[in-house]
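Quick entry between incubations.
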Amino acid sequence: MEAFSQLLNGFAIALTPMNLMWCLVGTTLGTAIGVLPGLGPALTIALLLPITFKVEPTAAFILFAGIYYGAMYGGSTTSILLNTPGESATIITALEGNKMARNGRAGAALATSAIGSFVAGTIGTLGITFLAPVVVDLALKFGPADYFSLMLLAFVTVSAVLGSSAVRGLTALLIGVWFGLIGVDLQTGQPRFTFGLPELLDGINVIVVAVGLFAVGETLYVASRYRLGNDEVIPLKGSLWMTREEWKRSWKPWLRGTLFGFPIGAMPAGGAEIPTFLSYYVERKLSSKPEEFGKGAIEGVAGPEAANNASAAGVLVPMLTLGLPTSATAAIMLSAFQSYGINPGPLLLESQPQLVWGLIASLFIGNVMLLVLNLPMIAIWVKLLQIPAPLLYAGILVFATIGTYGITQSPVDLILLYLVGAMGYLMRRYDFPTAPVIIGMILGPLAEQNFRQAMTISAGDWTVFFTRPLSATILVLVALALFGPKLYSLAVKPKPEGVPGDA
Amino acid sequence: MTGSFGGAGWAARLRPALGEIVIAAGVLVLAAVIFWQTLSIPVSPIYAKVGPTVMPMITAAGLAILGILLMVEALQGGWRTEEEKNVTPDRVALLWIAAGLVLNVLLIGPAGFTIASVILFVCVARGFGSKAILRDAAIGAAFALVAYFGFAQTLGINIGAGIVESAIERIFGLGQGS
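Done. Structure below.
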């Protein structure tokens, strides 16, 4: 099968000493930063992006792949030991994992999480290998109108799924779209929303927004509530190895979790929350010891962790094959691709196969490295967790400044960074999801491009979006996603409020 | 307007939540700003339907609708959970961090990266309650210097050489790699 031979080529590239080193650096950095509470994979990649400017593309992407997976592994460690999950996908892990840790079974929780992630990551990466060419074939039938509708679908599902309210998610998304529109419009040469500032002619750099929202905003938010809580790190007692029984109880959840995670992650806007929640629910139903759930059941860690990692692999499928990022992390990686002048999409697999397959091969290798890194080196990561919060967040902000100032040496960018940070704080305080901002910023201009191409081809005919069968089908899905949940809840339970006579 | 919201029932549900109202108003203001700025973008007739103003207009319209929806929610009691509402933010901490950020921006050009970063570091640490200023300054300085030379030497990225950096470079005879 052609995919397989391409994959072998990819391995040839990934296994060179230089690239292996980059993989190692990536996974180590990713884990180290992913372990730190409050720093998720999106922010990690955004902060480390400037490093890659001096490095050639293949190496840079191997680095990213390592960071991506590494950050997920690191985040799981934090959830288990500290009960403050780095991001929403690890909430479930925190649920059972932390309880296990309190029972002295922290080692087993970490082990099942690491091995489960490895299994899921490997199967998921295999999934990418075989799924990517299939999706590419399908994608080649897409015209600009279909792409535009697909992006609309991504917009809607991302905003409606991430966070608790579609209205707030869409607001965040549109703010991001606006950010993306700032700068010179490439098609007409017209500056937009630059408010007379020459620095804005090139637009706002997505790193500034990502770091502003996730680092500065998060720091402000945590600071405002810091004295109000105290998180203790659970010491690592007990053996790191799992007992036979724990292995027996873990392996099926690993596989089931992967089965949930990968397909859902691969769909536009699947995200990682749904598969992990789903896996937890299913494991609880299927377990022979349901009473343990809530007190530290190993299936509750094994399944969701596998689901989490499998969906991380799944997210790469639309990103690499369609150029469609379905998570903030994918959006940042996409913008990194763009800064190298590479545009992910169906043509990428043909024009730059060594890049894509090298990347996929590195994901495999990265998985192995992470398994080796995480289990024995766990003590080091725990030490990192014990850095006192004041120093940690101070360091994060200084690093954020480096990342931003280092790109352009422009104080305007720094001011933007801090203003976005303030906005991020308000968003966190008022329960607006922040990831859609990044996705809107990257996808917005792409959507606009496709919209214009579609309109140009159809000579100004609006209905083209509805007359092309692919586009029309997708738009129906968009409507379903937007109005479906509301209609469903109205139909199933008639609203109690609004009934006359109610107090 | 009351008619479409169920008459008397709506007025009874009116429990304005101040914070959310401000946010919703902010979104509406943003929509208005985008709209106003878009009007000043010249559109050439050839591009009428696919010009530079289409997407901005859609964005402004979308934000306006969402702003109204948010305002409705805000007037009906807001959307935050009870737990969130009862938590008052620690404003002193926020001020310390804000001060650090502002000083950083002001000083990074004239005084250089290290000095500005140390001040930022100390301010943020103070915002989180750390009173050991000298220790924090030392750690911050060490961190900043390592970061600076790491970036400058290994990657050749200039992140704002200033007083301290030039002094150290002179002492150790390090040139700036390019």
